[in-house]
């Protein structure tokens, strides 16, 4: 595919194959932690609101400044 705007091309293709939209697959594949081995990240509930907010900002969740920690977590999980 060779799309220079996608950081993790393999992850992008796998997500598209799973039915993710182009936009959502690109957001996930371009996240700062894209391509790192999974399973080692702390659950959202164990992170600070500031960390959760930054993750929401990185993936472009709208309205995040008005959300509390739990709302941010739900938005990240449903994004």
TrEMBL record:
Name by which UniProt lists this protein: Rho termination factor-like N-terminal domain-containing protein
Organism taxonomic ancestry: Bacteria, Pseudomonadati, Bacteroidota, Flavobacteriia, Flavobacteriales
A single BP term in Gene Ontology: DNA-templated transcription termination
Any matching Pfam family: Rho_N
Source species: Jejuia pallidilutea
Region Disordered, residue ranges: 1-47
The Rho termination factor-like N-terminal domain, residue ranges: 50-76
Source species, domain of life: Bacteria
């Amino acid at each position: 595919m060779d799309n220079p705007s996608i950081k993790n091309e393999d992850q992008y293709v796998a997500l598209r194959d799973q039915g993710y939209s182009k936009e959502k697959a690109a957001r996930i594949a371009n996240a700062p932690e894209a391509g790192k081995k999974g399973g080692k990240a702390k659950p959202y509930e164990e992170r600070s609101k500031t960390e959760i907010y930054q993750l929401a900002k990185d993936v472009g969740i709208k309205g995040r400044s008005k959300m509390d920690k739990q709302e941010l977590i739900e938005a990240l999980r449903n994004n």
